[in-house]
Specification:
single chain, alpha/beta, Glutaconate Coenzyme A-transferase, 2 domains, three-stranded antiparallel sheet, 8 helices, transferase, CoA_trans_fam_I, CoA-transferase activity, NagB/RpiA_transferase-like
């Protein structure tokens, strides 16, 4: 939750679009602590506070204006992610005859080419972190670069968070880099669970742990029913 919350640090007044229980807890925690300007939505047509209280109206046309204007930061899931940040949520196997049909491309291309998109992966494994995705849904750095300035102008993947660590793309070729490992996780374990060669700094820190105040907010205010535990193995 802390690593997901940190994805919105310093974003200012943008719309947070978390997809999943853990990212949702993270966005609300950020709003209640270090990111009071963050906008939250009920997923339909309203802006809401961390407690669900209505704060404003957000019809679909206004939501799209935020998307195309880059005033939204999404945290999506990924069935596959590769070393340049290409994301797949559509199918596994060849597109013409996939072995498994998933959600479909949905809004992933528009998201990644118009506003910041981070990713949350609750099960870090070589099946998710692959050398090359079977189908590009969310656009990665290599494909954006190949398409030219029209694709790279607003393209940004700030962060990838998994149950093992935090990653970014701040490398010369914009490939994935290990930023931190969660407490109790080793760098070797992350390498073994990743299907491509990560950039790993000489000194990899641990991900920040929650403060007592943040723990209280998570457990008593934001998610007292523990929905977050359904996404992450403990």
């Amino acid at each position: 939750m802390i690593a997901c919350a940190e994805a919105w640090r310093g974003n200012g007044e943008v719309l947070a679009s978390p997809m999943g229980a853990v990212p949702s807890v993270g966005a609300r925690l950020a709003r209640l602590t270090f990111a009071p300007e963050l906008l939250l939505t009920d997923g339909e047509a309203l802006l809401v506070g961390p407690d669900g209280e209505v704060e404003g109206w957000l019809p679909y046309r206004r939501h799209l204006a935020l998307v195309t204007g880059g005033r939204r930061h999404v945290m999506m899931g990924a069935s596959q992610l590769d070393r340049f940040g290409n994301q797949n949520i559509s199918c596994i196997g060849e597109w013409e005859q996939p072995a498994r049909q998933l959600l479909g491309v949905r809004g992933a291309p528009v998201n990644t080419l118009n506003n910041p998109v981070s990713y949350w992966v609750p099960r870090h494994s070589p099946r998710v972190f692959v050398e090359r995705v079977d189908m590009v849904c969310g656009v990665g750095h290599d494909n954006a670069r190949a398409a030219g300035p029209s694709a790279t102008r607003f393209h940004r993947i700030p962060q990838v968070v998994s149950d093992l660590g935090v990653f970014d793309f701040r490398t010369p070729d914009r490939s994935m880099r290990l930023v931190s490992v969660h407490p109790g996780v080793t760098v070797d374990r992350v390498r073994e669970a990743t299907g491509f060669a990560l950039t790993v700094p000489a000194d990899v820190p641990y991900t920040r742990t929650p403060t007592p105040a943040e723990l209280r907010l998570i457990r008593e205010v934001i998610d007292p029913s523990g929905t977050r535990d359904r996404e992450v193995r403990v």
